[in-house]
């Protein structure tokens, strides 16, 4: 039988902390409890602790600062963050600082048990403490759905490294925003961020744009040109739509990644130190199979893959994104908001153009009305040329925004369960949320497990 381990629980919610302690005991381990970060750090000074479960929002030291101090200790125990309010910023920063995971409350008994098992299995080996970041800003990276939370965690885990990252997803899903967030959150944040759209530059000009050239290298080269690869030295280079790059250029890029040096047209090799992030809407695995993309280059650029889901699979993010874009369109000092029926209307739309389409729609509606509150009528143009298939999505007169969203959410869950034949795991995947999150929503919204 495995010897009992010591789990430190730091949370200012007495009831929740006591419940976690009881579960830790049920699992055969010893719980230690602290109401705030200072008390938790004091316990770490006196006790041998095998793992820590840490709240994020507490009086005094917040969870991020406590995590930073724990990770700075010699042989620190593994730490998991629990929070009632997860944001892109605190998720990315927690993972960057070395947290094993970053979970949103409430956490069910089964998930908590799995978390404890994962914490104890790590043995505290999760890397050295990261330096504090004052510029790790995820404020423009909006999204609290389960799928986007996993993206944020991945960004935090790899932000300070140099591994190449490949971001995939449909057009308009926000691949460049993810690349910018990865850059800002990492140790290269003070360096340049250079973006090149490979699909927008003719193949004959792309080599010069990437590698640069010296004066006189070819007809029309009247001065030296640095090129994107050297311009990104010390920072991050985003090659957007790399799936559109021709095979000859792919071979030259592969050599740069192998040798870490760039040879401008007509010039001599120059060493470069950059992080490469690539993005594409194409299926590169299929492109490799069909001979349109080099397999060796694919393995070089896809060390860490990040797949962005389409907006139609991120129902939980639609209203938050819309309100974010509305605030940007209104500007400071001119607050505007969505009425309940407008929010319901946006959730009901299928968004073939993804986040880019949503931003366009919100900016259009904001420009065409002077009212402080935008209603469903302000988004009537969404019906133009597109039959609406969602049912039960129209808001009721006098309905509040939370009431409308709850009803829309219930209708979406019922539809997903019906399409999945009652299989809750498949329904959760189609909704873009974790299975445990689906169970919690079904309980809260009184959705039957057998919708038929």
Task: Present the secondary structure layout.
Layout: E1 6-10, H1 14-26, E2 30-34, H2 37-46, E3 51-55, H3 63-71, E4 79-83, H4 88-96, E5 101-104, H5 109-122, H6 146-158, E6 165-168, H7 175-185, E7 193-197, H8 203-211, H9 228-231, E8 236-240, H10 247-259, E9 261-262, E10 270-271, E11 275-280, H11 284-289, H12 295-301, E12 304-307, H13 315-330, E13 337-338, H14 340-348, H15 354-368, E14 373-374, H16 401-419, H17 424-431, H18 435-444
Parallel strand pairs: 1-2, 1-3, 3-4, 4-5, 6-11, 6-12, 7-8, 8-11, 13-14
Antiparallel strand pairs: 9-10
Domain Response regulatory: 6-120
GO molecular function, one term: ATP binding
InterPro entries: AAA+_ATPase, AAA_lid_NorR, CheY-like_superfamily, Homeodomain-like_sf, HTH_Fis, MCM_dom, P-loop_NTPase, Sig_transdc_resp-reg_receiver
Describe the 3D structure.
- Mean pLDDT is 86; it is low at 134-139 and 387-393.
- This protein has 452 residues and is α/β, with parallel strands linked by helices.
- It folds into 3 domains: 6-122, Rossmann fold; 161-307, 3-Layer(aba) Sandwich (Rossmann fold); 311-444, Helicase, Ruva Protein, domain 3.
- It starts with 5 loop residues before the first strand and ends in an 8-residue tail after the last helix.
- It has helices at residues 14-26, 37-46, 63-71, 88-96, 109-122, 146-158, 175-185, 203-211, 228-231, 247-259, 284-289, 295-301, 315-330, 340-348, 354-368, 401-419, 424-431, 435-444, and strands at residues 6-10, 30-34, 51-55, 79-83, 101-104, 165-168, 193-197, 236-240, 261-262, 270-271, 275-280, 304-307, 337-338, 373-374.
- Strand 4, helix 4 (88-96) and strand 5 (101-104) form a beta-alpha-beta unit.
- The chain has a 5-stranded parallel β-sheet, with helices on both faces. The chain has a 5-stranded parallel β-sheet with strand order 7-8-11-6-12. A two-stranded antiparallel ribbon has the order 9-10.
- Residues 6-120 form the Response regulatory domain.
- GO terms for molecular function: ATP binding; sequence-specific DNA binding.
